[in-house]
Specification:
The chain is of the alpha/beta class and about 450 residues long. It has 15 helices and 19 strands. It has a seven-stranded antiparallel β-sheet with strand order 13-12-1-5-3-17-18. GO terms for molecular function: nicotinamide phosphoribosyltransferase activity; nicotinate phosphoribosyltransferase activity.
Length: about 450
């Protein structure tokens, strides 16, 4: 049975009605569409390319099943010729994209599709759906990672994500963004992401007391157990964790840490650290969780709160401060002719484009340049093209989408990014130049 998220029917109706008109009127020439973000949200200084692999997987499996066609026929909106066209439709076009983990900016095409117009049109909804969310979460996670200054950060967001697919994409996207792992088990299976997790408050409540709960858990999972200490009272929980540690060490078990999930995390962590150190357990780590994001993590780190790691969930998987991107998938060429949109506030540049990133002698990013693909492009060791061929005539020609590669690529990109753009507050915009020799801007 086809996964519903892979279904070509996971689209807007008007994609299909437009496609039928295209087929009826012979508008089936090669089209080029580009996905891009029109403008940065006020709270962002950069974005991160992500979700490309999911789009490639979608395209590889793109086809209409007999059940899909029966449903479309039942709507009374589509004729037999069009349904026959759909029955044979597969993606045999070309895709160009930035590598996942690449930092990018407004108006830069992240992904381009070249295919017969009806087919390229049918892909719009799902491409925007996947890329927008993946980019949102990877970009948000990158900010949290920067704010943590190298401390461990783990994705705890599945239960608050807007559905299961969003939770999986968030786990992958946040890992690319610099998180150290996820609590989502299926993400560990699918993507090879390290999985983390110990106990919930319900586990503590199910026992007669905290000490029994801690001992039972550590004896079942003696490798690096972490105790949740805020079910009843944080100070009492820390003292119980110390008592449990004293017992367990005699059994050869060395608890790894404690987790605080509520209250004033700065104050509670300082109290916990003091108690642990006084007991001689300065090696026991303190993990904090509970409605954290880049802003709260930054405040805790800047205040020197003795926290060793963070569990981050709701505010990242929902990208609470920026819940959507002003992004689009627009036609820029059809049958060899460049096309564009003039609408105020939504104008587009015509033609299939390339993004050239310019660097200084130390490898730092200076500016980006938009050029046309059919014009001469000047590249060098300090000027590199960001868009690469990914699919040619329906076949994947660049499968370098390993999640660890994307994660490392983002680290490299952030090292090249001007420091002021890594700040959590709004900074002067990074320059994206439009080559005047390629575009008539008059």
């Amino acid at each position: 049975m086809q996964n519903s998220f892979d279904s070509p029917l996971l689209t807007d109706l008007y994609q299909l009605t437009m496609a039928q008109v295209y087929v009826e009127k012979g508008l089936t020439g090669t089209a080029c569409f580009e996905f891009f973000v029109r403008e940065l949200p006020a709270e962002r200084n950069f974005l991160v390319a992500s979700g490309i692999q999911e789009i490639i997987n979608f395209l590889k499996n793109f086809s209409f099943s007999s059940e899909d066609l029966k449903f479309l026929e039942s709507t009374g909106l589509f004729n037999k010729d069009f349904l026959e066209y759909l029955s044979e439709l597969q993606f045999k076009g070309d895709v160009y994209a930035m590598d996942e983990g690449t930092v990018f900016f407004p108006m830069e095409p992240v992904l381009q599709v070249k295919a017969p117009l009806p087919l390229a049109q049918l892909l719009e909804t799902r491409i925007i759906n996947v890329l927008q969310y993946s980019i949102l979460i990877t970009s948000k996670a990158a900010r949290v990672s920067l704010a943590s200054r190298g401390k461990t950060v783990v994705d705890f967001g599945l239960r608050r994500a807007h559905g299961g697919e969003a939770g999986l994409l968030a786990a992958k996207s946040s890992y690319i963004g610099g998180f150290n792992g996820t609590s989502t088990v299926l993400a560990g299976k699918l993507y090879g992401i390290p999985i983390f997790g110990t106990m919930a408050h319900s586990y503590i409540q199910a026992h007669r007391n905290e000490l029994e709960a801690f001992l039972n858990f550590a004896r079942t999972y003696p490798q690096r157990p972490i105790f949740l200490v805020d079910t009843y009272d944080v100070k009492q929980g820390v003292e119980t964790a110390i008592k449990a540690t004293q017992i367990l060490k005699k059994e050869g078990i060395n608890p790894f840490g404690i987790r605080i999930d509520s209250g004033d995390l700065s104050e509670e962590s300082r109290m916990a650290r003091l108690l642990l150190d006084e007991a001689g357990y300065n090696d026991i780590k303190i993990i904090a969780s509970g409605d954290l994001d880049e802003y709260s993590v930054a405040r805790l780190v800047e205040s020197n709160a003795p926290i060793d790691g963070f569990g981050v969930g709701t505010r990242v998987v929902t990208s609470v401060d920026v819940p959507y991107l002003n992004c689009a998938y627009k036609l820029v060429e059809y049958s060899g002719k460049k096309t564009f949109k003039r609408s105020k506030g939504k104008a587009t540049l015509p033609g299939q484009k390339q993004v050239i990133r310019h660097f200084d002698e130390n490898g730092g990013m200076i500016f980006d340049e938009l050029v046309l693909c059919d014009k001469t492009m000047n590249t060098s060791a300090t000027a590199k093209c960001l868009l690469k061929p990914i699919v040619e005539q329906g076949k994947v020609v660049n499968s370098a989408f390993a999640i660890e590669d994307a994660r490392q690529r983002l680290r490299t990109s952030l090292n090249m990014l001007p420091n002021h753009l890594k700040a959590l507050h709004k900074a002067p915009v990074y320059e994206v130049r439009i080559n005047p020799k390629h575009f008539n801007l008059s």
